[in-house]
Amino acid sequence: MYSHFASMLALCQEKHWPLWKAVCAEETELTGRDEESIFARMEHRYDIMAQSAQKALDNPLLGHTGKPTLITGLAQAHQQYAQRGNTLCGPVLNRMMARALSCSEANASMGRVCAMPTAGACGIVPAVLLTLEEELSIPRRKVLEALIVASGVGAVITQNATVSGAEGGCQAECGAAAAMAAAAAVYLMDGTPEQSLQAMSHALINVMGLVCDPIAGLVQIPCAQRNASQAMNALLSADLALAGMVCPVPPDEVLEAMYRTGKSLPPTLRETALGGLAGTKAGQEIAREIHGA
Predict the structure, then answer these.
(1) Which residue in 48, 49, 58, 178 has a CA-CA distance of 20 to 30 Å to 148?
(2) What is this structure's pTM?
């Protein structure tokens, strides 16, 4: 039915469908699942997201060895900071960042997360959707529709580019998650399908060229911080689109540019832990302490 953003949008315009309806129709054609089944599966995944977004807010999570990870306690500390009230971004956005950090902390502790689209980027979509659901009192059904929008955007990114940090850098991983969350956020604000895809474009533009440089090769630093920052990117990109900002480069070409940029990154900046933060003196010392080499 569609394979690119242009054909996805054309289908919505032809059928007078919201984006989630087009995504559901595509899923039904590919898998044979009906709409009720799709929503049930999405609700199950959303429950997993909610659990991981809460898990580290109450208690810092240790690694599978019983020792702290590089990010143990970050989510709880940020949640407490948000609760104090004297923050630069305000309590709502700081709670959103804490949720994103909690998902990353859950992942680092070998807890259960929902890859969205990857485990390394698992906090971005949950943090955005949970926060908007809470702050705007959005009905659960509409939140699940937004999650389907995010999933459809992610599927097109996966089909035509990549969501792998090893292949395309963090722009393809956390950046893709931000693009998915931005499109979903626009839907929650009753934006049009065109605006959702514009938000997706803005989010990718904002991280074009972002490298993947995990210290010690672990999905912890700077992955956790990027989950928090890309949740913010998703909301600001959604606001840009809702305000009427239109990128002169079509969404499919923005995606193509992201993919080409990722392919142009040197191997040291694509999840090898050889460049960027991982290549610093401090990063290498941390790696030696953890791996004993």
Answers:
(1) 58
(2) 0.97
* Residue type (1 letter), 107: N
CA distance 293 to 291: 6
Q: How many CB atoms lie within 10 A of CB 137?
A: 7
Per residue in 125-166, pLDDT (tens digit) is 999 999 999 999 999 999 999 999 999 999 999 999 999 999
The CATH number of the domain holding residue 214 is 1.10.4100
Amino acid at residue number 230 = Q
SS3 call for 70: coil
Tell me the residue type at 212. Answer: C
Which helix (H) or strand (E) element contains residue 260?
helix 251-264
Query: How many other C-beta atoms are found inside a 10 Å radius of the C-beta of residue 36?
Result: 8
Domain residues for the domain of 218 are 5-291
Nearest-angstrom CA–CA distance, 154 and 150: 6
Alpha-carbon gap, residue 200 to 38, rounded angstroms = 23
Residue pair 117/179 in contact (Cβ under 8 Å)? The answer is: no
**For 83-92, what is the mean pLDDT?**
95
Cis peptide before 214 (omega within 30 of 0): no
